[in-house]
DNA sequence: GTCTATCATAAGTACACCTTATGCATGTTC
DNA sequence: GAACATGCATAAGGTGTACTTATGATAGAC
């Protein structure tokens, strides 16, 4: 007997099975994470390869043909068989995703977003390990690392998440009382943070640090603390606008200027190269890159919509 | 339970199943019509997606791991299920391939090659229908048409097979006795075929037809007859070198000049666009295009290796 | 009549998958 | 113990399939 199966792309069977089960191209597309057009295309292609119509297209609804019904039941049976076998064979603990992350990223970014991921992936437990050192991936249940740097780590595949930006932030009350409109106005404002960071910032906006920049009044141990201080009205701090997007949007923090001053490097998501396609890793990666992308466009939108006080450059 | 299957390309399962069954990357590659490298790549990719080794690689041999064994039996079961369902559902008569073809192509080209196809496809019966008219594809069990023309037929997908070339051919004895070395020598030779074809040929090689070209001595009803006449030593005929490749190679015919004079158009393989992926059609098409390709390179090699008597241009 | 939900189709695009080419290790032959 | 043969691994590069985006078409709901 001739092996017609050889000419049938098996991935089409998966699409067909979902479509038959949900009785809708649109819903199958949702379920499979693709577009309705793609499902429509795929089913038509399958039908042509078989030389048989699988669905009758009525407007706004489809119905399986007789052949479609027969194929559907076989497909679902075969897919379930495979599904069981694969779950059976796969690496243990596909149900727990281990993440090591930097403190900053954990509190300022991940904490507010990870809930979304867990809602969308109720079957995946997430174990977050805050660790500022460079943890290794061998054993230890670590699947994904969130790190700061250049993105170059041997043996690891790295995907860029968030740029290392900083920009002056303060409370709306402080902004109102000091009426800061240009970088020069900051010379007389209470500054929070490391002197060299402020010097860098002034230099980047074109103000040589020769003039009498007052030393920052408060120096904390990390960015989160500094910005908290600023939010409490104690001064102006340098912070990464990506991390404080929410506070800026709801008015708890004011972003004084629209310029994003970039440091070298950035925040990266990474994992061992050869584990790139493990389902749990791939799912988290895809989700997180989506989030980062939408952050990037948020920041851009925020800058362009003039929610800042002043403009530089 | 989390659907890990969603992240597994099902086509990889087919590759895995063949590899497990044949216990060799190389042989699986042969069976699947792909390269050993591709199989190796695919299996590695699958292993990475599963996070589990499926084979142990010893040098010059592989062995299934425990997980591999479990997956192999499930895969073969699932694939057999699908195979049966698809054969069940597919259009009837996937076992008979209907071809309509032109007389010339049938006798001069197809007849000597179709055996190869049937040897390679013992499960497919071939029904050849010689028909010089433009047969239609609706019903009638016609799957594939072999036609002459421009390749533009509405509703059909056409693949180019053989160019419409012609070149003077005669028997080796005639060549020896007449000692033909230049096109001019043909003016005194006995010609076979239609006068206007010869006029066209002389014009194409740069000899205006003003001079006293003798009228052809013999005019037959088709090219096959004319070339047969030439082969019998009765004269020089114009024939398509592709069709007489074998006779030229084994010395029954001499190709006088290496120039290929091309007419417009050529021979095409065609079928209804929407049936392009029907297994029987796809298999024949792929095979035939392969043959045509190797013909083309044969002709080229023949020209370049100086098996002709004279050179033009 | 307008609006909306669904599938169809066209055009453009990207990346997965394959090939080609080569390397490497080991077993085999003389 | 060379020289060769065989089978798998790996890198680099090309290509076509299978997507997306954008738009059209149809008919049922209101």
From TrEMBL, chains A, B:
Matching Pfam families: HTH_1, LysR_substrate
Family annotation (InterPro entries): LysR-type_TF_proteobact-type, LysR_HTH_N, LysR_subst-bd, WH-like_DNA-bd_sf, WH_DNA-bd_sf
Keywords, comma-separated and alphabetical: DNA-binding, Transcription, Transcription regulation
Domain of life: Bacteria
Domain named HTH lysR-type: residues: 8-65
PANTHER family (alphabetical): GLYCINE CLEAVAGE SYSTEM TRANSCRIPTIONAL ACTIVATOR (PTHR30537:SF26), HTH-TYPE TRANSCRIPTIONAL REGULATOR (PTHR30537)
Membership in a protein family: Belongs to the LysR transcriptional regulatory family.
Protein's name according to its UniProt entry: Transcriptional regulator GcvA
Organism (species): Brevundimonas terrae
